[in-house]
Amino acid sequence: MLLIVDAEVIFACLIKRGFSLELVKIAKDSGYRLVTPEYVFEEIRRREDKLLKYSKLERSKLWFILFLLLSEIESIPREEYREFEEEARENAPLEDFPYLALALKFKRLREDVRIWSNDSEFRRKSEKLVSFVSTKELALELGVI
Amino acid sequence: MRLEVPKGLEPKVELAIERVLNMFLREIKFEIAKEILKESELSEEQARELAKEVNLSAAKRHLE
């Protein structure tokens, strides 16, 4: 099973009272493959200053968690899903189409794929093409809550 | 501690030890991460704001 991870879920892994980081671990332990489109981690890195300001974590501590996430969530090169971008642009909000393109690529490969996102607009617009799961739904599914 | 390994099985045992060590290290990393997170002041709203920025920038780069 494959989960395409939205950037919001990745940032949620840095929230004190959240359980997204725990979910990442449990999902991987349960055999899920976690992936995200190219540029997502790069763009997260570019927001290091904001992340440091908001989280008030020391730089080394912030990077400890980011490196852990990088080792758990694969970044898929754009070349692998480029051919699905056009269809994705027509069926997803502008800022979310790379996730849908990546999902369509894996769907074509007959993989059991879902998008892990809490964005209701993205879900409403794209669910006709690919399945979605929210953090709460995944937590229920994996017995975390 | 000493582990008696039957002759010829040494490479398999080495691989098994490496696999167990990696799993063990991963568990430790998650435990450390949990401790670090106790200090984090990032809010859900800030996480959403950052995600929006990241998704928009990443999408724009896909349009280039």
Overview of this structure, please?
The complex is a heterodimer of chains A (145) and B (64). Chain A has 145 residues and is an alpha/beta fold. Chain A is built from nine helices and five strands, in the order E-H-H-E-H-H-H-E-H-H-E-H-E-H. Chain A has a five-stranded parallel β-sheet with strand order 3-2-1-4-5. In chain A, helix 8 (120-126) links the parallel strand 4 (113-116) and strand 5. In chain A, helix 6 crosses helix 7. The radius of gyration of chain A is 15 Å and the shape is globular. Chain B has 64 residues and is mainly alpha-helical. Chain B has one domain (10-63). Chain B has two helices and no strands. Chain B has helices at 10-37, 44-63. The A-B interface holds A 6-8, 10-12, 14-16, 18, 21-22, 25, 37-40, 42-44, 46-47, 50-51, 54-57, 61, 64-65, 68, 78, 85, 94-98, 101 and B 29-30, 32-34, 36-44, 46-48, 50-59, 61-62.
Task: Estimate the strand proportion of chain A.
Answer: 5-15%
**Biggest pleated sheet of chain A:** 5 strands, parallel
What portion of residues of chain A is helical? 40-55%
What share of residues are in beta strands of chain B?
A: under 5%
Helix content of chain B: over 70%
Which tags fit this structure?
heterodimer; A: 145 residues; alpha/beta; Rossmann fold; five-stranded parallel beta sheet; 9 helices; 5 strands; 54% helix; 14% strand; B: 64 residues; mainly alpha; 2 helices; 75% helix; elongated
Give the SSE map:
The complex is a heterodimer of chains A (145) and B (64).
Chain A: E1 2-5, H1 7-12, H2 20-29, E2 33-37, H3 40-46, H4 48-55, H5 59-72, E3 73-76, H6 85-91, H7 97-108, E4 113-116, H8 120-126, E5 131-133, H9 135-141
Parallel strand pairs in A: 1-2, 1-4, 2-3, 4-5
Chain B: H1 10-37, H2 44-63
